[in-house]
Prior knowledge:
By secondary structure, the chain is an alpha+beta fold. It is built from 4 helices and 7 strands; from the N terminus they run ααβββαββββα. The protein has helices at 7-19, 30-40, 93-110, 169-187, and strands at residues 47-58, 63-74, 77-85, 118-125, 128-135, 140-142, 164-165. Strands 1, 2, 3, 4, 5, 6 and 7 form a 7-stranded mixed beta sheet that branches. The chain starts with 6 loop residues before the first helix and ends with a helix.
Amino acid sequence: MTQPWQPYIHQSFESARLTDPSGTNESAFYGPYTRLLYTLFSLDSDFEVIPQYKEMLLDSRDSVDFVTVFVVELNRHPVFFIEITPPAALRFESKREDADKQMRLRFRDLRSNLAILILHGVSAFGTRLCFYRYERASIKLQPPMIRSHGELLTDVAPLDRWDCDVLEVEGATRFRDVIEHVKQMCAQL
């Protein structure tokens, strides 16, 4: 089977998995995603990959968590971002809900400084990906928000939204297509 990325990318992700066999340490994937982003947004280009660490108060649990987001910028304007969550958390509805909320908050924070028409974002639980897309003109964000119901226990961030793996052909292709779209929009600036 053909690998969708260069061997060093696969090795980096495999190293993360081996370093954290329980899949509970999100920082294990910081290196692989940094390497992947700098492979796609070349080091010798005008793009910058900027890690951001945000404190998040989890209102339902009275605890504090930290969210790590890698924002790709061009001339100090956001053009893409990815939020990384530990892979073991994917099975928990509450963790997917937290990730979805954080993605939506990040779009709200970044949209005021957009120079491109569409901002793409990715939520990653380890190597599993959910793709988001914000259209500046219509202020539409996809996938749509699922609202919770007062009496029903609604899964507001269904597992099937994280429907591909960055290390498999389909996931790698979708990721590359998004980055290519970002680069095309940036070339028009």
